[in-house]
Write a structure and sequence with these properties.
2 copies of one chain form a homodimer. Chain A contains 3 helices and 4 strands; from the N terminus they run E-H-E-E-H-H-E. With about 110 residues, the first copy, chain A, is an alpha+beta fold. In chain A, a hairpin with a 4-residue loop joins strand 2 and strand 3. Strand 4 of chain A pairs antiparallel with strand 4 of chain B.
């Protein structure tokens, strides 16, 4: 999405949604969906940013939101609901979602 | 570490430390350190589990702790301090650390 892989988050508190997933074999439309969902998320009210990494074992995507209401609203966006349903049936062997309030943060600086 | 890539976390609330990093080129002892730190973290009081993914762009490691005091104590473990210092100088071009309180979670089931 951008050349900076880090989300540009404000001073805490804000909300992090940690999505950890084990993928099924093959792509089966996953990469295109992930790009589309990333772009769609960025248009939602209260969106702060996203960070994502994926290797052979696990994928982790952390999306950041101004508050929990914004995170819940994104979960309910119609096109996202379709992707979630397809995720459950086709793309993810298993996953965990954790909704958390960030209370402190810091960087390398 | 284990065949289950997901952390076995209890009912919320608990604490998540999200560590996102951009790596320098090459390994330079990183993989061995990461294994050692994973094993050492698992020995700490209040440790709940860890999830990690890394691709060419970003690495994300989320460690889970019973409370913020346990997470802070792990940050101060002597051998970990040495690894953090080496991380700043050799392994990470940049990173972000976010300390968060998990308030809700769910899985595929």
């Amino acid at each position: 999405m951008t050349s900076d892989p880090f989300a540009q988050t404000p001073e805490p508190p804000y909300v992090a949604v940690v999505f950890s997933s084990v993928h099924t074999d093959g792509d089966d439309g996953y990469a295109a969906m992930a790009r589309r969902m990333g772009a769609l998320a960025a248009e939602q009210p209260g969106y702060l940013g996203i960070e994502s990494a994926r290797d052979d074992t696990l994928g982790i995507t952390v999306s950041y939101w101004v508050d929990e209401a914004a995170a819940v609203a994104w979960k309910q966006v119609a096109e996202h609901l379709v992707a979630q349903e397809r995720g459950r049936s086709a793309w993810y062997d298993d996953y965990r979602v954790r909704i958390a309030t960030v209370t402190r943060d810091y960087g390398k600086g």
